[in-house]
Amino acid sequence: MKTPLVPFVLLCMAFMAYTISIYQRPLRHPVPAEDASRIAQGRLVWQKYNCQSCHQLFGLGGYLGPDLTNLLSTPGKDANYLKAFVRSGIRQMPPFDVPEEELELLVEFLRAADRSGKASPANFRIKSDGMIEAHD
Ligand code: HEC
Asked: 34-71 burial by CB neighbour count: b if 16+ within 10 A, else e?
C-alpha cells in the first residue's frame, strides 16, 4: 500500500504557511497609537459603575441592557445621549451620579471600543482566506 506522504507533507506546509501569515497580521496592521491612558481610565470608570453587569462589549457582559460596543457610531446616539442615560437611568437601569470628568473618560473608552470593530455578527462576511470582514 502506498503511503499518502506527499499530500500529508503538502497539507502540513499549507498549515504552517497559514499559521505564520495569521500570526504576522498584527505586525502588519499595528494598532493606531491612541491616548491609551485616558482610554484605560475610562475602562476603570466602566468597571467602577459596573456597566458590564448589564451591558456587553463585543457580546461579553450582562444581558439586561443592550450591547454598547457601537453605540456612539449609531446615528443619533452621541456622547450627550450616553451621558443623559447614565445620569437619569431608564427602566431597570438605575441613575448613576457620575462626575462630568468620569463621563468624559467613559465616552473616550466607548469611542475606542467602537473604533476597534463591529459587535453585531449579522453583517459579517467570511473572506476566502478565512478572515472576517465587517460591513456597516
Ligand atoms: C442594572 C443594569 C444596568 C446597569 C448597571 C447599567 N445599565 Fe445601561 N441600560 C440598562 C437597560 C435595561 C437599558 C435598556 C433600557 C430600555 O431601553 O428599556 C439600558 C440602556 C442604556 C443605554 C441606552 C442604550 C441604547 O442603545 O440606546 C446606555 C447608553 C446605557 N444604558 C449606558 C450605561 C452605562 C454607561 C452604564 C454604567 C455607568 C450602565 N448603562 C449601567 C441596564 C443597566
From this structure: eeeeebebbbebbeebebeebbbbeeebeeebebbbbb
